TrEMBL record:
GO biological process: protein transport; receptor-mediated endocytosis
InterPro entries in alphabetical order: AMN (IPR026112)
GO terms under cellular component: apical plasma membrane; endocytic vesicle
Ranges in coiled-coil conformation: none
Organism of derivation: Xiphophorus couchianus
Compartment(s): Cell membrane
Chief location of this protein within or outside the cell: membrane
Residues spanning the membrane: 362-383
Membrane association type: Single-pass type I membrane protein
Superkingdom of the source species: Eukaryota
Protein name: Protein amnionless
Keywords tagged on the record: Cell membrane, Membrane, Protein transport, Signal, Transmembrane, Transmembrane helix, Transport
Amino acid sequence: MLKMAQVLLICCLVGATNALYKQWIPDTNYENKTNWDKGEVPCGSDTVQFSSQRKVSVFVETTHAVQEMTLPMDGEIILNSGAGFYVISGQDPDCGAGVMTKFKDADSLQWFNPALWQAAATLNDLQDGHFLFSVHEESVPCQQDDVVFKPLSSFRVDTSSSQTTIPVKSVSVLGNVFDSKSEFSEYLGSQSGLLQFHGSSSVTVGNPSCGDATGCDCGNSVNHERICSTVTCGTLSCKKPLLPIGHCCEVCGTIIFIHFSDSFNLENYRGRIRHLFLSLPKYQSIQLGMSKILKPQRLMGIIPFGSSPEIQVVILDGETGKLSEVLAQDMTKDIKSHGSNLGITGAEIQTASEPGSSAGTVVGAVFGVLLVVTLIVIVVVLIRKGIVQMPPMPSMPSLSRFRRNTDVDDLNAAADRGFDNPIFDKPDMLNNISGLYSTDSISMTQAGVHFINPAYDENEIDFTV
Ligand SMILES: *[C@@H]1O[C@H](CO)[C@@H](O)[C@H](O)[C@H]1NC(C)=O
């Protein structure tokens, strides 16, 4: 239920990641040895077999000698200019005894598999191999992205999904860029189109590019489960792994949530971080993904209450997360001194190291939904003054127990600090970064209800049903 509500809210609010190029990695090229069952491109003594039932579009770049070739019932071979096949009689001296080599089946490769895409900010970056890291949902093409199938190659992609269409800005196939809806749907109906794209949904082009300089929401959260079904998560070595929004796996690293104003520019900020920090030798092992996400807000930490756009910066260092924390501190310093020029109004940090250091350094936080804060403050003040009594909770079994019930004292202590809302009390927000928000912001103990603010750490909540 809760999930459903979130999904609805997320898809109904217009969010806005800037357009990137997303390139499909696999190909169905004759010359790619990963496409052959023996792991080698067949040579002149070999017998080549394409499974008769499989549909496939094969791109051939050069000339090849074969002994014999079995073709599929429904398929095509796209010959590059100058490419072709010839038969040599007897054994090919460069090849040895001939074997039977089969072209592998490409039917199972799914559009929504994040491992099969690489992303870059420009076509040049794509060619030079300067790829961008992103959370799983955004590894797959977003609605404002340009999709690239490598020039001089063919492919076969399963576009099945629960939606009828997969909207993107443009699709480039064999070097032809399609950005008109009608032209691309015509291509999809062609012989090549039918062999390259299969599955229940159809890719549509012509979706507008991201017109918002602060970024655009990717739009793939509706396909989150499909995307994550293809991902296997590794084992983690940190104490308190984090789950970035849009990612399928918990990570040992650091997340910064940036609050921005209209003057923020995502592309510029991404460039700034690249030049100021990521280019430094000490940060070579860092993977950093930055995008606009819709962060779910919850009333009193439990009830879903819409979502607010924020910039999520996911920083991974491939290890325990310590180096990512160092970078996060550097970025925080930069925000403190230049935030106002960059259109950044605040930032929160979540780290994966042990509790204590993870309370979350707050740099002038501004809540997206002020109302939530106001309501919490009012309710708590009323309860403290005895004007309102907490109703007994057993009627809501799902809220009856939290993992950290044992830490009651801890929570109480945290509650005493919990109300220092920087919006109300601290005019010079940017200069106060002293754990104003602790992860455990409110507790009302005897009634058995502890509010643990999930805005800072979703992992803290353990609903027992
Ligand atoms: C061959 O295919 C594999 C897997 O599909 C891909 O990773 C690789 O880049 C391809 N090789 C070339 C030269 O394109």
